[in-house]
Amino acid sequence: MYRSLRATSLVPRLARSLRVQPTVGSVSSIRFISNTNKNLADDAAVQAHTPHKPDTDNYLDTLNTSELLGYGVIGMCTLSKPVLNMAIRAFPYTPLWMIRLLVYKNYCGGDTLPEVMKTGERLSERGIRNMMVSYTVEACDGKKMSVSIETIVGETKRSISELLVPHTVKMIQEAGIANINDIPPGYVALKPTGLIESAADILLHYQEPAYKGRYEQLVETCSEIIKVAEDSNLTLHKQFPGRKAPFIVAIVDAERNDLQQGVYKLQRDLFARFNKVEPTVVGTMQMYLKESTPNLAKEDKLARQGGYLLGWKLVRGAYIHTEPNRAVIHDTKADTDANYDSGIQNALANMSSEKPSVGHLVVASHNPNTQKMATDLLEKVSDKAVKANVVLGQLLGMGDNITYYLTKHRDVKNIIKYVPWGPPLETKEYLLRRLEENGDAVRADSGWPLVKGVAKTLWKRAF
Ligand SMILES: Cc1cc2nc3c(=O)[nH]c(=O)nc-3n(C[C@H](O)[C@H](O)[C@H](O)COP(=O)(O)OP(=O)(O)OC[C@H]3O[C@@H](n4cnc5c(N)ncnc54)[C@H](O)[C@@H]3O)c2cc1C
C-alpha cells in the first residue's frame, strides 16, 4: 500500500532541482552516486562557505527558570577548551545528586514514563510535538549495568505503548485531523549494545558460527520491540486513515565503529522483516565515516533486491573522541560536512524519485547550515508522503537555538527531540558524551554567549 501510494504521487521536480538522476536502480545506484558527486559536492561547498547565522536571539525566552539555570552551568563549563577539559575530567567524580540538581533535567526526560510524558508536553509548548525516546543505557557493552536486559526490553516496549502512542494521538487530536501529517512520528531508539548480554562480542563476531544463535537472539529481541510499534501502527492507521507516515518508528542507534558492521547487518535484517509496507524501522548512518556513502549505495542495492524500504537517520557521528582508528573518519570537518549534506540531498532525491528505496529520513544534527539546507530543500517538495517522512532532530538540551529558529522562523513542524530517560546512574555516561560534544564546534549555544544570554534573560524576568 505504502509503495503504490508513493509511486503515484512523485516529485521528480525535487530530483531535478537537486540535479540528481531520478531513477536510482540497483546497479545504477553506484553510478548515481559518482555521476552526481561533483554537483553534490559543489552544492555542499557553496553552503559550507556561506555560514548561516539564524535569528535565534529570543530562544532563551522560551525556557523556564530551572532550564535556564541548567544552561548557565553548561555555559560556565564550556567557557573555553581548558575549562571544558577540566569539567570533563571532574565529571566522573561529581556526585549524582549534584548532576541531577544542576543539569539532568536539561538533557534527560526523567526516570519514569509519567515524567517523560510531562517532558513531551513541555516540548509541545515549544512547538516540538514528538520525541525520539531512548531508555538510556550508555556504554553497556560488557560493563555492569544497574538494570537487567529484561528491564531494558520491557521498559522500551512500555515506552511505545504507554508513552509514544498516547502522546502521538494527543498531538494529532490537538493539531486536528486536517493537519495529521504535520505531527512527526514518535521514535523509539534501540541501542543494540543494551539489548543482549555480551552484545559487543556478538556484534564483533556475528559472522562466526559460534555466535549465530546469539546474533539471532538479538534480532528476535529487537523484533519483539518493533512488533509493538508495528501493531500500534496497524491500529492507528485504521483510526487515522489520512496518515502518510508511520505513527511509531523504531530507530537503530549507531555505535562505536568496530561494532558497526554487526549493527549494519542487524538493521538490514530488521528492514527486511518490517519495512515491506511502510518504513517502521529506521537505521543510522554516521556520515563522518569514509565508508558511509558507499554503504548507503550498498544498502540501496540490497533493499531493491529484497523489496523492502530503507529508513535513514543521518548523523555526523558521536565517537570521534574515542575512535582508535582515526583513518576511518573523514580527514577534515569540512569533508564530513560535505558528505553529510550530500547524504541528505541524495536521500531526498531518492524519496522523490519514481522508484524510491528510501521511505523515511531523519536529519539528526545541531548544525544550523545543515538544518537550513534540509528545510530549504523540503520546502520545494509538494508530495505529502515525502514531506511527512522527513523529520529534523536534535538532542534534548542541545541545539535549542537552531530548534527555535526552525520552529519559530521557518514554521517547521517536522521536528523532534531525542529524549533519553531511565535510571540516573546510567544516564551519567550519556551526559558526559554531551559535554564532550559541546566542545566539538564553536556554538552560539555554549560558552560565554550562553552565560551572557542566560544572565540577561533572568535579569529581564526579575525586573
Ligand atoms: C536525534 C539524534 C540522534 C543521534 N543518534 C546518534 C547515533 O545513533 N549514533 C551516533 O554516533 N551519534 C548520534 N547522534 C549524535 C550525532 O552524531 C552528534 O550530534 C553529531 O556528531 C554532532 O554533530 P552535528 O551534526 O550536530 O554538527 P557539528 O557540531 O557541525 O559537527 C560536529 C561533528 O562533526 C564531526 N567532526 C568534528 N571534527 C571533525 C574532524 N576534524 N574531522 C572529521 N569529522 C569531524 C564529528 O562527527 C563531530 O561530532 C545523534 C544526534 C541526534 C541529534
TrEMBL record:
A GO BP annotation: L-proline catabolic process to L-glutamate
Top-level class of the enzyme under EC nomenclature: oxidoreductase
Catalytic activity: L-proline + a quinone = (S)-1-pyrroline-5-carboxylate + a quinol + H(+)
Cofactor(s) of this protein: FAD
Enzyme Commission number, as recorded: 1.5.5.2
Family that this chain belongs to: Belongs to the proline oxidase family.
Annotated function: Converts proline to delta-1-pyrroline-5-carboxylate.
Gene Ontology molecular function terms on file: FAD binding; proline dehydrogenase activity
Every Proline dehydrogenase domain range: 192-441
Keywords: FAD, Flavoprotein, Oxidoreductase, Proline metabolism
Name of this protein: Proline dehydrogenase
UniProt keyword annotation of Metal-binding present: no
Species of origin: Brettanomyces naardenensis
InterPro entries per the UniProt record, alphabetical: FAD-linked_oxidoreductase-like (IPR029041), Proline_DH_dom (IPR002872), Proline_oxidase (IPR015659)
Any Pfam family: Pro_dh
GO cellular component: mitochondrion
